[in-house]
């Protein structure tokens, strides 16, 4: 971008426009995943929806590349575009709760912690992810799953409306009654259809929850995972637990004698009576004696931020994912193999339940096409040291390749990593892809919004 174009952009927009010569530029291009190193020509920090409209019009009129940044948490770094313009929504962090209607309207640049803090004051919450620094935008548009999913469904199952700036710079509200085709596509179709400047969510009564962490030696993975695959899908919907392979971090609540040990474990959330959590989880002794078991009542936002300090912004990340409807014995053996060989202390594997309430939404009701999945798996190599980037990536890719034959073929779109091809995007949406491509043609026929896991506009016949 030449300096005249940059000057014109700075003049036409209300929010600040940051170019490579500005002192804030280096900080502006830092995102959650430090493995990503892209240099946009400019960042547009949008103050409001009108600013987003002006930014989209300017970018389109000048033939520039466009990316959108909400929380900056995109694993493949899709919120940055080399030599183009990042529309940065981070100034648009606000939440308005209507406790009587049990709804919350949330600015497009908000993070999960903003939503959780605002709703918790009223004893309410909606299902989102498990890391509080995640942006609501990317998480929601990909579908969204977390601790409340078995009880209250996916994030998109609780989305009531979205305010969207379209590729032509116009502003619409999408809901069941307004632009229902767009609303359908936004619920799982990613950032393909426009820039969402606010989301309106349905809220549920959630206040203090029972939290549990159970860990077993990693060599008990076979016994624990075969127990878990049967126990969890049959458990009451108030019991949520994601299975994980990880290394015990040095610090509370873990006792010093197990710091640094490779383990398999389950992180629990109990939305029933928090004082009955221990009773609800009594079966954890069945597969093998745990080396660690902890339960405590906790305010829901505290659970949501439990892992934030372990995995702060600025580490090297490489991740991939897949959906699973079963965990056969052969898959259990693969998990044991890679759990015993975690490449760094922060590398991990998670299997998140996406059953129960998430299964009660019709397969055609949203763009999320895996209503028959039971788990959403993610394999993540993580380390602060760039020297370990190749090692953590290779471990992740090898693990994913061995597990993929046991998967349903596609992935949660937010767990797709760098460099995954168009076939993987199609596999994520299955037979919804063609319908999404039709919606894309209606709302973004020239594919302005393509810095994402891209759905190309359907061709005109």
UniProtKB/TrEMBL annotation:
UniProt key word Nuclease = no
State the Gene Ontology terms under molecular function.
FAD binding; oxidoreductase activity
Instruction: Classify the source by domain of life.
Output: Bacteria
Chain ranges of the FAD-binding PCMH-type domain: 36-206
Q: Could you tell me the keywords of this UniProt record?
A: FAD, Flavoprotein, Oxidoreductase
Cross-referenced Pfam families: BBE, FAD_binding_4
What is the annotated signal peptide range for this record?
Answer: none
Checking SUPFAM superfamilies in the record gives: FAD-binding/transporter-associated domain-like, FAD-linked oxidases, C-terminal domain
Name its co-factor(s).
Answer: FAD
Which family is it part of? Belongs to the oxygen-dependent FAD-linked oxidoreductase family.
Q: What is this protein called?
A: Oxidoreductase
Q: Which organism is it from?
A: Streptomyces hawaiiensis
